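User: Here's a chain of 590 residues. Predict its fold as tokens.
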Amino acid sequence: MWRHVRATVAVAFGLGALAFVSLATAQPPKTDDKNLVISPKGSGASGSSDPLNKPGFLVIRPNGKAPVLVSDPPSPVPTRQPTSGRPNPPAAGVAVPSPNAKLDADTVFDFWFVAAVEGQRIGYVQWGAKRAKKGERELVVGVKYQNFTVSRFGQVVSQWGEESTVETPDGQILVTGMRQGIGKDQALVLSGVVEGKILKITGEGAAKGASDTPFPEGVVGCVREPALFKEKRLKAGESFEYPAYIGVVNRVVKMTVTLEGEESAALWPKEPARKLLRYVTKMEPVGNFKLPPATTWVDAESFEPLKMEFDFPGFGGRVSFLRTTKEAATVLVARPIELFNAQSIRLDREIPGIHAGRGVVYKVTAAKDDDPGTLFPSDARQQVKNLDANAKTFELHAQASHGPTKGAVPLPAPGPEFTASNYFINWDNDGVKAHAAAAVRALPAFSTDWEKAAAVERWVHRNMKAFEFSQAMATADNVAKTLSGDCTEYAMLSAAMCRALGIPSRTVLGLVYAPAKDGKPYLAYHMWFEVYADKQWLPLDATLGLGGVGPGHLKIADHSWHDEKTFAPLLPVLRVLSAKPVVAVAKVEP
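Assistant: Prediction complete.
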């Protein structure tokens, strides 16, 4: 069940201010054994006319009799606009899964879970595995599909994500897959093929060239993971460990599972209590980031997972998955949670005219973080000062920046990764180049890089058609076509246009001051961009279009997105979310 925690964290970024990357779909290189070909499209029938219907190849097709590994995203369950009334608890209307449900001969298991946050339904998860056979070779394909529906600034948004593995009957992983919708009619699709102790990552189109990663023996995939409880049969207080591949950061990490004990509880309304085994799973830290521990309840007789819970601030509280039937899991989400309320930090008072101000000193308390002084970086525009390690408090001094500073210490020239075209900031296409040329057309011939970058900021601010939230984090070429999205799309397009003009650029993840009707403003998670001009890294924000940023922008991290097909660059933001910082205004410089 820990797999749900990983996927939920990723989808939360997709539905919130940031995004989620996935793996799946590609043709692996030849090996000494039979090749595995994963085809992204097709009818499912493997006739003689099929170019992939060759001896020595296993073809896994969508919508056919073979198990589904890769397909176009399943049609999402329809949603309706939020309605008034009390939120439904996860158990309301949830049917009890039948332990004697008949499965077809090829199905290993087929689990459905309703997902909720603090009792409010957000969607569902389907987790299943099927046997496959090609010639004499026995395989098992596991797929976990997750669909969440939430609200962003009152706009209902539905996002899907999927991960999968092709395994041998004894649990050896041959192919890994993850994919995620990231924009309008756009999904990031990558695949990994295990060769020895390396996971060879490949992708389609602009996603080609993703980094390979070490893949030790014994990594547990979608098929084997739910069977571990029965395999290990722990006694209370005992633990076991296993390696798992985390696609969102493209690496294998260690999981530790501990059996806390046995209890009796009723999980569904009007159902008698049953004996349950309660396990707690912890993941080793990835850098400075740790996923929250998850508690899983499994049936004491069948050892099948029935419920899981974990605390996730990105959704505003306790996330739960309760086992049920397909029909009950896919019930309409009638009242989506509002992510802005869950993900934003409330300030203690207003700061009128903050984006035109000179500076602000914030007092930050981060009691839940082990090293709070590193939550925010120090640079030319903001500094962490007066850290009290015992109280876990510090001051964050933020200043305005609206162009090059005279007399500033020159910074080293950035590397080629800040001008290259990559998967997300992909500028080497007609759409981005045309917008970049239009942005600077009226400038004098000998304009500086800063003047060109400021013109890009103005052009994007004026020409994006709508500030809407249905997209997760679309690539720059896609944004160039739609000219719509939220702050992530504004930032990606702006950074790409600057690179098309030869100006080094990077995106910035952080917080921005946002007013509220009740007088207590928010610090909302946000993305903007920086350019290297006049030997300085200088911020710009096309969402606001003010020719720079004020002290209401607090930087958490920056990234070039070079060779990135995962969301590892977003982990610093998730770390701040998990820290649940309390921020107060200590001083304002008008």
